[in-house]
Design goal:
Number of strands: 17
Number of domains: 3
Shape: elongated
CATH topology of the largest domain: Rossmann fold
Strand content: 25-35%
Largest sheet: 7 strands, mixed
CATH architecture of the largest domain: 3-Layer(aba) Sandwich
């Protein structure tokens, strides 16, 4: 497409874009072109004499001319873009920047100042995401022994159950009955890759099997004991074991992990996963009890508000292990998994125990 433009040296490209944008001259529908050491910045109209003067003072060797441009493919608008078109300007900054997508369900946290707009927000998310059939708003914090929360259906089909796909795995989930977070997908995959063939793994707080099934799918000879106190989680775990064809590799166990390990799994594990960040510190002794006498690996997850989250989490884990019969041989890695709130992080420490 032939259009008016600014021809400038490449070194002035960023300045030219900023200036033409501020003057309302920059054409965002056309692609910036380059030729040798020159850039051609597309203009939506011919600049006035005053605008040319302003541009000329800041852009040496500038020339207004005509050039052939290719058209940019327009990006589909996300729900934030759509909402920003009609929400009062002072509320736009309060919009959540993203939603969690679990199967065909979108989950969003709506701040108090946007409560009156929650149904419109839900409908807009449906419009912007054609694969979403239900939008849920978080209606409570995660609480209780079963780690569940309440939701309000603000758009779409009245349901909380869906089928979620993560890497090569399929998960049947009901968000109102068992904890599940798509934000941990890369962490599930990371741990699965670390497991060695023929290892025995105990997943102490298994939920619907996010870690256990990833491990079983990647390792033909690994064995995973997946423990959870929530009967609904175990029910979905059983479905997921069948759906992912890992019947011989994952054993679901319903019960309090402290009692389960004491009765069945003392000294059997090469690796223990402790993904209960709000309470994992209370179960470090159980993890140590589950490890083989020669030792093994613990993946310890915790929430922290400390200024040095990784260091603080490491220190707390070391102190807890020193109260058992075990010792830390090596901290293999510690990393921030995600931010969960302002100045609050979920941290994982991978530790080799002897």
């Amino acid at each position: 497409m032939r259009s008016s433009c600014l021809k400038i040296p490449k070194t002035l490209g960023q300045r030219a874009i900023e200036m033409t944008y501020k003057l309302g001259l920059y054409d965002q529908n056309l692609r910036i072109e380059h030729e040798g050491n020159c850039l051609y910045v597309p203009l939506s109209r011919q600049p006035s004499e005053k605008e040319k003067e302003t541009l000329g003072k800041n852009l040496q060797n500038m020339e207004v001319c005509v050039h052939d441009f290719s058209t940019l493919v327009s990006r589909p608008k996300g729900f934030v873009d759509l909402l920003a078109e009609w929400l009062p300007p002072h509320l736009v900054t309060s919009l959540p920047r993203s939603a969690d997508f679990v199967g065909d369900i979108a989950v969003i946290e709506i701040p108090a100042e946007l409560e009156a707009y929650r149904y419109k927000i839900g409908e807009t998310i449906l419009t912007a995401n054609k694969r979403v059939h239900t939008v849920l708003a978080k209606a409570s914090a995660i609480s209780g022994v079963y780690r569940t929360r309440e939701f309000e259906i603000i758009a779409g089909e009245p349901k909380t159950a869906t089928v979620h796909r993560e890497y090569s795995c399929v998960f049947h989930v009901d968000l109102s009955k068992a904890y599940f977070s798509p934000r941990l997908s890369s962490e599930h995959a990371r741990i699965a890759k670390l497991v060695n063939e023929r290892e025995t793994v105990i997943d102490m707080f298994a939920g619907v099997g996010s870690f256990a099934i990833q491990i079983a799918k990647q390792h033909e000879k690994a064995r995973v004991y997946a423990v959870d106190i929530n009967p609904d989680a175990i029910e979905f775990l059983n479905k997921n074991i069948i759906a992912n064809r890992v019947l011989t590799k994952v054993t679901p166990v319903l019960g309090d992990v402290r009692k389960v390990v004491n009765e069945r799994f003392v000294g059997v594990a090469d690796r223990v996963i402790m993904n209960l960040p709000e309470k994992a510190l209370e179960y470090v002794d159980v993890a140590c009890e589950a490890l083989k006498p020669i030792g093994g690996i613990i993946h310890y997850y915790a929430f922290t508000e400390a200024s040095e989250p990784k260091k603080t989490t490491e220190v707390r884990l070391v102190e807890a292990i020193e109260k058992t019969q075990r010792k830390i041989d090596e901290i293999l890695t510690s990393r921030i998994v995600r931010a969960t709130a302002p100045y609050t992080w979920q941290v994982v420490v991978d530790a080799k125990i002897r």
